[in-house]
């Protein structure tokens, strides 16, 4: 299960998706999310699916990695689908006690599962094709105007970058601790939910200790290098928009506009 958590991983490459400005990719993800929530029925979802497939093909990210990233949230997806399936009003085709399955419920559950899955895969594609440092620079640049009202943009961006960077590290650390506990006779896979939760306590304590130790080491390292936030800092690579970024933004806006128009007319 831990190996299925791919959030924060970065797949190096030299594709068009990798060369895009991080600000462009962040804006495109926002447009993609808005378009997903605007989409209705088969035609608009087919357009969004085609856009996602095109982005995956351009980025050359292994599709298995995107699918594997869905495994940790399968329970949430299934739970959401069941709620929409049994509690959506409409034409009843099956009922028992307080549970009712309607035609509208089946359609809503199907599109909800599709929406959540595409949402997760689309956002994961951003971290797969953008290094944490580059992503931080892009986010800081986009939020730059907020500095005028004293919002600590650089610090917030740095916190996000560090969190993304340490997700794979903490997963690897958790896997090592679990292997060590299993070698000592710990059992994390049998028993009911309460027994499994109790068995996780010997895992959580050393994991928290390791996380706090890493955080302290990072803080000391930043202080030794005279880190004082974003004040007076320069960048090795200055972000600049290129023609490919303008083209990508136009295509993203066109997809959103097309989906919005089709959804408005009920297609």
In short:
This protein has 267 residues and is mainly alpha-helical.
Descriptive overview:
The chain has 267 residues and is mainly α. Helices cover 67% and strands 3% of the residues. Strands 1-2 form a two-stranded antiparallel sheet. A hairpin with a 2-residue loop joins strand 1 and strand 2. The radius of gyration is 22 Å and the shape is flat.
Structural class: mainly alpha
Global outline: flat
Q: Please report the total strand number as a whole number.
A: 2
How many distinct helices? Answer: 11
**Major sheet attributes:** 2 strands, antiparallel
Largest sheet strand order: 1-2
Uncertain segments are none
- Order of SSEs: HHHHHEEHHHHHH
Distance between the termini: 39 Å
As a whole number of angstroms, the C-alpha radius of gyration is: 22 Å
What proportion of the residues form beta strands (DSSP E)?
under 5%
Q: What portion of residues is helical?
A: 55-70%
Estimate the mean pLDDT confidence.
81
SSE map:
Blueprint: H1 16-19, H2 22-38, H3 41-59, H4 63-68, H5 74-86, E1 92-96, E2 99-102, H6 103-128, H7 132-142, H8 153-183, H9 193-199, H10 201-224, H11 243-264
Antiparallel strand pairs: 1-2
Helix pairs in contact: 2-6, 2-7, 2-11, 3-6, 3-11, 5-6, 7-8, 8-10
